[in-house]
Amino acid sequence: MEAWLKSQGLWRIVSSSQKCPELKSPSPSKDNTTAESATTSATAAAQAKLLEVKTLKLQDAWDARSDKAAGWIWLMLDQDQKTLVDSLAIHWYLTGQTPSESFLA
């Protein structure tokens, strides 16, 4: 299974060497004069929006790969193994969430 997941580019997610991206906040700027402050605020807001969009795209791509890995793991299990493993357990393992966290999200 490891070889298959590696061939599909999913092993780093399964092995936890590639973590889920986190939303980053832009660092606060220093106080300037009023005119500079307005320009700086507008620039900071634009940068924050770009950072949010980029992070959301990274999150979406990571989620898609995580879902794909969980699906492949589930499909590769024998039927008798599937009775012992819940598909949500695979999802929780890949996302690093606990059952209570995923239900509250």
Please tell me about this protein's structure.
The protein is mainly α and 105 residues long. The chain has a domain of 52 residues. Helices cover 69% and strands 0% of the residues. The chain starts with a helix and ends with a helix.
* Straight-line N-to-C gap: 30 Å
Structural class: mainly alpha
Proportion of residues in helical segments = 55-70%
Oligomer: single chain
> Which range does the strand content fall in?
under 5%
Region (Disordered): 19-41
Give a quick summary of the entry.
With 105 residues, the chain is mostly helical.
Secondary-structure map with pairings?
Layout: H1 2-7, H2 11-14, H3 34-76, H4 79-82, H5 87-95, H6 99-104
Helix pairs in contact: 3-5
Can you give keywords for this protein?
mainly alpha, 69% helix
